Amino acid sequence: MRKNFVFSFLTGILALSTSMSAQTFVMVDEDRVSPENEPAPVHPVPSERQLMWNETEFYAFFHYGMNTYTNKEWGNGGEDPNTFAPTKVPNPRQWLTAVKAAGMKGGIAVVKHHDGFCLWPTKTTKHNVTSSSNENAQKTNIPDSFAIAARDLGMKYGFYVSPWDRNSQYWGDGTSNYTNKVFLPQCLELAQFGDDQFEMWFDGATGGEQGYHGGAWESRSISNAQTYYDVPNLRDTVHAISPNCVMWGVGDEARWIGNEQGWAGETNWAMGTGEYGSESGWYWKAGESDAKATSAGWFWHSGETPKTAAQLFKIYLETVGRNATLILNFPPDKSGELPAADVKVLEELGQMMQTRLGTDLALKAKVEASEERTAGATRNYSVGNIIDQNKDTYWATNDGSKTATITLTWDEEQSLHYVTLMEYIRLGQRVKAFTIETSTDGATWKKCSTTTTTIGYKRIIPLGGSTSNYTAVKAKYLRITINDSRACPTLHTVSVF
């Protein structure tokens, strides 16, 4: 709708009604080409908070709580608070320091699981740390100490709070008491631990199993989580305090990749559901892949061991490298700290990340494109933008051009392992198919992967053809061919390692 025309029309009606004189209305087309010649968005597009969330990329999950001391994954809500008995004061700073060494940018702490036991002195229930007689439990306030540590370390942070509560007498009782008296106030309390939170994590569990429920010891369930938990009000309430906090799961601002195994589909749209998303999805909901870094469950269990650094790096390539974020779980033990074996493998992973993805060879390459979009008044869409290390500049083709090639050339032959591509997703996800080829002479080309599909926020292509092997390809030339796109393609970064 042309707003200027509508305004002129309404002004004319007002003038007609007051002066009773004849008016002449002229429709004027106010549409103008942007002076910057920016490509039109391809909807849906992400919100600012969703963009910031996506940029976090790789962060930790810390499952800790009552289940750590009962050897369970899902507690029933009837646990004695004294069972929560840390052998030390829980130390979130140690958790975050360890995962930062692996290259993670933040973490999410479980502060209330399905058993309803809260790891902070909440006003909403007595089923919390203050009811334990353990002296270390009495000193525990995970949301507070976690937020302080994250800020000190320059990391992002957020909290997991289970909507399902098997302890509460109100949960699933057929009224709105639980949502109004317990759940929404808990989320409000957590939001007030910091207005800089980047994510609040809600499981979608809707009951169906027996729980304590204030002593009723019965099975309860709900039919519609969105309605029961008053999700629109939840989002508005949290966003009023923490405007950059994405609501995961029940909150519906980011989606579950769907397998808990640490992989996303090679085709992965930031719309739709599951591992692959859908090109025809109506709204932006990028995927988050949650995975266990240890051999047992989400919570710590005696005898568990961490996956190797090589296994975790493979998970990284198959999640972050496939247009998803990765939330990797490292559970603190009964001391409230990460075990030494976990800390060691995190250090090894960080070293591997630096060795394999730390030196960008694209920065010293000559870069050419088959087409560059016509520049605007103050900005251009040159292919050089893909190696200027600025996420706010990008290369694009002209409208109507859905295919293009980008070629990188080095003076000397290079050992190439990975190519990273990043779309300018502020304007929507566009690329539908691309291929990568290498050459030693610029005349004979070898395809390094089968025809590849989506890019999105980030795509990492192993040139050796496998996410399991660190295999190099010798080349002086690398060619990226975009074979199909929803509209003119955009890329803000191309990196080669």
Describe what you observe in this structure.
- The structure is a single chain.
- By secondary structure, the chain is α/β, with parallel strands linked by helices.
- The protein is 22% helix and 22% strand.
- The protein contains eleven helices and 20 strands.
- It has helices at 3-19, 48-54, 66-70, 92-100, 135-138, 142-153, 177-191, 225-228, 231-241, 309-317, 340-357; strands at 58-62, 106-112, 156-161, 199-202, 207-211, 218-221, 246-249, 255-256, 287-292, 324-329, 366-369, 395-396, 404-416, 418-422, 431-439, 446-447, 459-462, 473-485, 490-491, 493-496.
- 46% of the residues are buried.
Topology, element by element:
Elements: H1 3-19, H2 48-54, E1 58-62, H3 66-70, H4 92-100, E2 106-112, H5 135-138, H6 142-153, E3 156-161, H7 177-191, E4 199-202, E5 207-211, E6 218-221, H8 225-228, H9 231-241, E7 246-249, E8 255-256, E9 287-292, H10 309-317, E10 324-329, H11 340-357, E11 366-369, E12 395-396, E13 404-416, E14 418-422, E15 431-439, E16 446-447, E17 459-462, E18 473-485, E19 490-491, E20 493-496
Parallel strand pairs: 1-2, 1-10, 2-3, 3-4, 4-7, 8-9, 9-10
Antiparallel strand pairs: 5-6, 11-13, 12-19, 13-18, 14-17, 14-20, 15-16, 15-18
Helix pairs in contact: 4-6, 7-9, 10-11
